[in-house]
Automatic annotation (TrEMBL):
<dbReference type="InterPro" id="IPR050498">
    <property type="entry name" value="Ycf3"/>
</dbReference>
<dbReference type="Pfam" id="PF13181">
    <property type="entry name" value="TPR_8"/>
</dbReference>
<dbReference type="Pfam" id="PF14559">
    <property type="entry name" value="TPR_19"/>
</dbReference>
<protein>
    <submittedName>
        <fullName>Tetratricopeptide repeat-containing protein</fullName>
    </submittedName>
</protein>
<dbReference type="InterPro" id="IPR011990">
    <property type="entry name" value="TPR-like_helical_dom_sf"/>
</dbReference>
<dbReference type="InterPro" id="IPR019734">
    <property type="entry name" value="TPR_rpt"/>
</dbReference>
<keyword id="KW-0677">Repeat</keyword>
<feature type="repeat" description="TPR">
    <location>
        <begin position="128"/>
        <end position="161"/>
    </location>
</feature>
<feature type="repeat" description="TPR">
    <location>
        <begin position="60"/>
        <end position="93"/>
    </location>
</feature>
<keyword id="KW-0802">TPR repeat</keyword>
Amino acid sequence: MKKFILSFLIYIIGVTPVFSQTYQELSDRAIACTEQDSLAQAENYICQALKLEPANPHNALLFSNLGTIQRRQRDYEQALESYTFALNIAPRAIPILLNRAALNLEMGRNDHARIDYSLVLDLEKDNKEALLMRAYIYASQRDLKFARVDYERLLKLDPQNYNARLGLATLEQKDGNLQKALEILNKMLVENPEDAALYVARAGVEQDMQHVDLAMIDLEEALKLNSSQTEAYLMRGQIYLSQKKKSLAKQDFEKAMFLGVPQAELRGVLQQCR
């Protein structure tokens, strides 16, 4: 009869009942399950611990861990709620703010992410992750002045920061400062001569400068280093199309689709390849 009742409970509530375990034991089990990628079980243990001691101040960490587990399971709304519960308990916890900011960005909630990164920088003005990601958000929203401030501040802290240098080069390109963008990318390629993404970035600047032959050389080099560079196929396809080489353009656009670019996004250029 006991075995039947236990099985019935599992069937009804969908989780394994946990008997006579302390808050700490449940928390430790959750960590172990997370390390073993048993995410559903880890979530179960955390929920049991939260129910056992709802007023425990360490629940901020548990809610944060729960949010990360839910995020890994792509349960984004629940993850956002868990991170927010964690911050209600510990509003100045920078790692939790960074986690929620990253999740907001992943969900396309860029304004919310920017607010969280700004909260981090209010608490820790030289936080590199927050500076980098807020600069990225500003740049994507065409707030180039504010993006520049964050990139330059980050580069003062870390002059060789790869992402900040690439971000600043992209910013200079968007701002029409093509020679400055080219100078940054040239220096980076001296240091990273086998970085396909940098060749693609430089090709984009060269294309804007009307140096199409140089752009094509860089795109060829990028694809030689990494044949999965989707942006390289798209850019080369556009150049071929502008040169009326429709067959070659079509091949590149089709390769980009093969690599994951939605056909709907390329419908217009594919029609021009006819």
